[in-house]
Write a structure and sequence with these properties.
By secondary structure, this protein is α+β, with helices and mostly antiparallel strands. The protein is built from 4 helices and 10 strands; from the N terminus they run αβββββαβαβββαβ. The strands form 2 sheets. The chain has a 5-stranded antiparallel sheet with strand order 4-3-6-1-9. The N and C termini lie far apart (47 Å).
């Protein structure tokens, strides 16, 4: 009895740790076989940075985050970037085909992409209501916009199924990753160039409210 209880508690602890590890400021995932079908990204705000006591319809903004989205082609080029404002307990989504590769900086639509998410506070106290240029400005700790926890994200990818010539879709959580100072400077610098000189090319489409699924 004690052995079974100990194993159950250990499993619960590992599950809690695994879930907690997802709540990081930098997460990454890939989407493949985009010519065979779409992939989607669903993102929520856990409320880790606060929330309105009586809900969004009463009082000012609180606990808002900007999830900064960076899409890379397989040859390492940053092809699009943008930001999603997410309120506590809110849900937003992006379609990889419609939002990330439909308006690339290069004019080329790759068949697969790597998607990186950097979560920052919306405004210095998480009370901002705009994420304009946030993907270009995301900074190191203590530099506005401040990277923060409070983001959970899931994504789908298309892969070959058992039957020849058919495809299936799998959804998994984004994976927490280490964000080096060099990588942060690289992605924000290149996003700055996209916004400043891309003539609107390379700015991915706006996030939409609610979740998406693969067709």
């Amino acid at each position: 009895m004690h052995t079974k209880l100990s194993l159950t508690l250990a499993a619960m602890t590992l599950s809690m740790v695994a879930f907690g590890q997802q709540d990081t400021s930098f997460q990454i995932r890939y989407a493949a076989n985009l010519t065979a079908g779409d992939s989607v990204i669903n993102i929520t705000n856990t409320g880790a940075n606060g929330a309105s006591l009586n809900g969004p319809g009463f009082g000012g903004a609180a606990g808002n985050i900007c999830v900064n989205v960076y899409a890379f082609s397989p040859d390492e080029q940053l092809i699009s970037c943008c930001s999603c404002l997410i309120t506590p307990n809110g849900l937003v989504s992006l379609s990889v085909n419609q939002d990330l590769v439909s308006n690339t900086l290069t004019g080329v639509r790759p068949n697969s992409v790597v998607v990186k998410l950097v979560n920052t506070l919306a405004g210095p106290a998480a009370t901002g209501t705009s994420c304009t240029n946030s993907a270009a400005l995301a900074g190191a700790p203590a530099t506005f916009p401040i990277p923060t926890n409070g983001m959970l994200a899931w994504g789908t990818t298309v892969h070959a199924a058992a039957a020849a010539g058919t495809f299936a879709t799998t959804e998994t959580a984004f994976i927490p990753a280490t964000l080096s100072a060099g990588e942060l400077a690289s992605i924000t610098g290149r996003c700055t160039s996209i916004i400043g000189n891309g003539s609107t090319f390379g700015i991915c489409r706006s996030c939409r409210t609610g979740g998406l699924r693969a067709e």
